[in-house]
Amino acid sequence: MLDEIVANAPWYLLVAARALALIETAPLLSTDAVPQPAKVALAAFVAFLAYPSAPFGAWNAAPFSLGFALLVAGEVLIGITLGFFLTIVFSAFSTAGQLFSLQMGFGASEVYDPLAQIENPLMGQYLNLIALLVFLTVDGFRKLFLGGFMRSLQSISAVSLAGSREGFLNLLLSGLSRLFVDSMIISMPILGTLFIVSVSMGLLSKAAPQMNLLTEGFPISITVAFALILVTMPFLIEAFARVIDGGFLAMEGFLAKAGGGI
Q1: Most buried residue among 59, 97, 137, 169 by CB atoms closer than 10 A?
Q2: pLDDT for 154-208, tens place per residue?
Q3: What contacts 24+ positions apart, CB below 8 Å, involve 52-60?
């Protein structure tokens, strides 16, 4: 097989370009914590495994011509779109942490998150770390490369990219809508409880003005929030797993539709 890849190096380059673009934008792998040589090596290895299922019939451009350069750009665009969609799905966890960080009193405690590569509130980074463990538990990397990359090679190519642009747009829009819905579902138990705590402290401050609830409110909110996170952690893990699986199912459904259900 190695001799075949060497003889068809331009077509192997197309497969590797899509794999590298997916790795550069997919959650967890796109972080700066993963060295760039490791990303390139992983892309080359994935392309080596996926080479037999590559759509050679759809690539009819002469090697290293202008048409071939457009094919490379199209393959890169497909990989970026798929990786960006999964990143949108994964952003629901940090968004959920941002929604109740302010109510906890951690709104100003932003730190650099090496996974998301943004300034993220402390609770957003905490939920991101839990999501990382859940991602590994549900075989996220296997689904990423087998259900995502391998399926995309069988379903869509750079030549058919123009005809699938509406499907790609719907995929990204559905990812954005899922982001807000999933983040609200994850954060609502904690956010709702903290809202009740805030209302209760407001009523107490009116009933007993001599109580200094301004200084006592933050410790109470933080204690209640952490106790609630501890109690609901099994349910949060199940919700994280459903969100991740739902993202992969949405992507595989799009690829199945784009490939005619093959």
Answers
A1: 97
A2: 777 766 666 666 667 777 777 777 888 888 888 888 888 888 888 887 777 777 7
A3: 52/1, 53/150, 53/153, 53/154, 54/11, 54/14, 54/15, 54/153, 55/153, 55/154, 55/157, 56/8, 56/11, 58/157, 58/158, 58/159, 58/160, 59/11, 59/14, 59/157, 59/158, 59/159, 60/159
